Amino acid sequence: MVQSMPDIECRMTKFRSIFWHRRDLRIEDNIGLFEASKNSKNLIGVYILDPNLLDLNRTSSEAKNWFLGESLLELQRNWESRGSILLILNGNPIILIPKLAKLIKADCIYWNRNIEPYEINRDRQIIEELAKEKKTVHSFLDQLIVNPNIIKTNNNEPYKVYGPFFRKWIDILNKTNKLNNNLIQTSSTPTKIIGLDARALSSIKNSDLSYCIFKKSKSLFDLLSSNRFKNNNLCPCKPGESHSIKQLNFFINSRGINSYAQGRDIPSLESTSYLSAALSLGTISCRSVWNGAQKSKNIALDEYQINSIDTWIKELAWREFYQNALINFPELEKGPYREKWFNFPWQNRPDWFEAWSSGLTGIPIIDAAMRQLKVSGWMHNRCRMIVASFLVKDLLIDWRWGEKFFMKSLVDGDLASNNGGWQWSASSGMDPKPMRIFNPFRQASKFDENGKYIRKWIPELSHVATTDLLSGEIIPSERKDYPKPIINHKYQTSIFKELYSNIH
Ligand SMILES: Cc1cc2nc3c(=O)[nH]c(=O)nc-3n(C[C@H](O)[C@H](O)[C@H](O)COP(=O)(O)OP(=O)(O)OC[C@H]3O[C@@H](n4cnc5c(N)ncnc54)[C@H](O)[C@@H]3O)c2cc1C
Questions:
Q1: pLDDT tens digits, residue range 75-114?
Q2: Helix, coil or strand: residue 110
Q3: In the chain, what are the domains?
C-alpha cells in the first residue's frame, strides 16, 4: 500500500516516460502505470523477454511461457487502444532499458518493484546505469497487499512462522480499511495515453531496436510459435487481464468462494479460484482479489460462508508470507532454511525420479497428480503437498530436484511460493512442525474417496474398483501395463526417519 511517490519536479513538469511491465501484465489497478500516466507528457510501455526468466530448464515452463505470451498480446492491444504502444524487446534488461531511455530521450522510467534476488540485483544495476544518464527511476510496491516493511514482530524482526505473520497481516488490513467497508482503493489508468511523437518514434526505427516497431510482435511471435504447450484448454489458468477478471468474478459469482473451506481439498472438484498464474504474472492485482473477497463477505449469508471466504483470504496471506520470507531471507532460494538439512544423505535415485516425474510410480494418487501437471501445466494444492512429501520422504530425493521440476512444469511457477511449498513439504523451512509425512493412500482415501480424480488422470485404471485405486493394491490382471508400486511406503518412511534422526 505504501509506495514511493514521484518527486515534485516530475509531478510539476510532465516528462517523457517509459513504463516497464514486469510482473504486472495489466493496465487496470497497476500502481506504477497509474502514476506514470498521471505524471508523464508522453508515455510508452515496454516488456522485455529476458532469457534469464524464460529459461525452460530453470525458471520457466512451456505452460508459463504460453500464459505470458498470450497475456502480452492482450496487453499490447490495450496499450494501442489507449493511443500509445507497448514495445516488446528481447534480451538483457540491464542493456535494453538504458538504451531505450537514451534513444527516445525519456526522462523518467517507472516500474513496480519485484522481490526475487535476481530481479533486485538486476534493478540495482539498471538504476545505476540510468543515473549516469541523469534519468529518474520511480518504483512502486504493487504485487503485495501489505507493505513488507511494516509486517514486523514487536522486536522489529521479520516473521518466520505463518500464524503470527497472518495475525499481523490481517490486523494491518482491518485497521487500514475499516472506514471503507474493508475495501482497498484501486487505481484506474486513463483511457487515453499520449504516446511518442513522430520524432521519438523514428529514433527507434533508425536504431537496432527497430525490430520492435517494424515487426511489432516478432519477439512475441517467436516465443509463442516455438512453444510446445498445446493443452491450453486443459490448463485451468487462463491468460490475459480480461480473462483473469472473469476468472475472479466467476469464482465469486458462482459461489465457489462461499464453499471454499470444504471444497478446496478435493482435487476432483473445480473448487479453487485458479488465479495463481494471474497473481504471479500480475494479470490481476492482489488488491482486486482482496476486494472481491471482501465484497463476497459483505453479502455472505451465514457463518459457514464467512468462514469459507476467510479460509481463502488465508491462502492469499500464504502467498504474501512466502514473498516476505524471500525478501527477508533471500538465501532460501539456494537451499534449506534449517541448516542441518544440508547434511541429509539423499539417495537421489535417477530411476525413481524419472518414475515420479512421468507419473509412473505405481501409486495412483501420485501418478494422477503428476500427470495432471504434465498435461495441464497445473496441479491441485492438496496434490502438490502429497507428491512433494512422497518425493522427499518416500523416495529420499532432494526436494530441490522437485522444486526445479515444478518450475519447469507449472503455469504458475513462482520462486517464492514454489520454494516455500517445497521447504514446507520437505520440513526444511521455517515451519515449526517439521516432521510431517503424508501417507499417499490415506490422503487418497480422504480427499479422493470415490477415485474420481485418479480415474480422470489415469484412464487406464478407470475400470479398477475404488478401494483398490485408493489402496494401490491392484491385481496384475487389472493393472495391465500400469506399473507396480516402486516402493513400500512404510519401509521407505522408516528409513527416512532413521536418516533424519542422525543428521545434526
Ligand atoms: C510443493 C508446492 C509448490 C507450490 N508451487 C507454487 C507455485 O510455484 N506458484 C504458486 O502460485 N503456488 C504454488 N503453490 C501453492 C498452491 O499450490 C497454489 O498457489 C494453488 O494450488 C493455486 O491454485 P488456485 O489459484 O486455484 O488457488 P486458491 O486455492 O484459489 O488460492 C488463491 C491464491 O492464493 C495463493 N495460494 C494458495 N495457496 C497457497 C500456498 N500454499 N502458498 C502460496 N500461495 C498460495 C495463490 O496465489 C492462489 O492463486 C505450491 C504449493 C506446494 C505445496
A1: 999 999 999 999 999 999 999 999 999 999 999 999 999 9
A2: strand
A3: 339-501 (1.10.579.10)
E runs forming strands in 50-107: 86-90
Q: How far apart are CA 190 and CA 263, in angstroms?
A: 39
How far away, in angstroms, is 414 Cα from ligand 1 center?
Answer: 9
Please say if 270 is a catalytic residue. no
Question: Is residue 422 annotated as a catalytic residue, yes or no?
Answer: yes
Q: Which atom of ligand 1 is nearest to the CA of 273?
A: 30
- pTM recorded for the entire structure: 0.95
> 188-222, pLDDT tens digit by residue?
888 889 999 888 888 888 888 877 666 666 788 88
Q: Which of 412, 422, 443 is the best mutation target for the ligand 1 pocket, counting ligand atoms within 8 Å of the beta carbon and taking the most?
A: 412
Helix (H, G, I), strand (E, B) or coil at 137: strand
Is 90 considered catalytic here? no
Q: Residue 216's pLDDT is what?
A: 61
Distance CA 484, CA 223 (A): 40
CB-based pocket (< 6 A), ligand 1: 264, 272-276, 279-280, 315-316, 318-319, 322, 381, 384-385, 388, 406, 410, 412-414, 417-418, 420-422, 425
Grid coordinates given for 55: 529459461
